[in-house]
Amino acid sequence: MASFTAPTFPHPGDSITLSGASPETLALLAQRRSTLAKDMGEPGPSAEQLDTLLRIGARTPDHGKLFPWRFIVFEGEARAKFGERLEARFRDIEPDAPAERFELERSRFLRAPVVIAVVSDTDETHKVPEWEQILSAGAVCQNLLIAAAALGFGAQWLTEWYAFDKRMKSALGLQPGERVAGFIYVGTPQVPAQERPRKDPRVTRWEE
User: Fold this and answer.
1) Of 34, 100, 177, 184, whose CB count within 10 A is highest?
2) pLDDT value for 22
3) CA distance linking residue 14 with residue 41, whole number of Å
């Protein structure tokens, strides 16, 4: 793997001067495409790259400076152990499912070297609308996708059934009011991602 130099992050109170136009950034955004989790493999991000990924993920609009989200990282053996929990829970839900479905559940988190759960943690009593807090967690997920691409990795934002299952939310350690905004799978693409059909943006211009 090529050597990695972490970017410089500003400190509170620092003046931030943008470096001007960045064609490279525009090209990355214009061509960003999710890599399917099933098409990922090793290597995953190093400890330093993962730290950078999470810190960039956290640099999102956040009205009120609430930080209404947190991360749960799955790597190494933790992926297989969580897969065992997924399989066990799915057997409770659909005991008559075919064997290959149980295998799928057991191996879900093994599809990528690293899986990052982004947990939305809103404060309904705060003056900042809950919807804005939820949107901030969504922005975290998108930041992770873009940062992963900039680091040279593939990434995919998924939820799937276990993001909404009460028992699996408990297994994740989610507290009342917390919700999974997404599981971000990160790894090295094994095949090139294929562009999908996209519609032109729907745009209107308001006139009084």
Assistant:
1) 184
2) 87
3) 39
Average pLDDT, the chain: 95
Strand partners, 149: none
Which pTM does this prediction carry? 0.94
**Residues whose CB is less than 8 angstroms from the CB of residue 88 and which lie 6 or more positions away in sequence, other chains included:** none
Strands 114-121 and 69-75: antiparallel
As a whole number of angstroms, the distance between CA 142 and CA 67 comes to 16
Q: Where are the beta strands (DSSP E) in 76-139?
A: 114-121
The CATH superfamily holding the domain 33-75+111-189 is NADH Oxidase (3.40.109.10)
Domain boundaries, the chain: 33-75+111-189
At residue 2, the pLDDT reads: 61
CB distance 158 to 117 below 8 Å: no
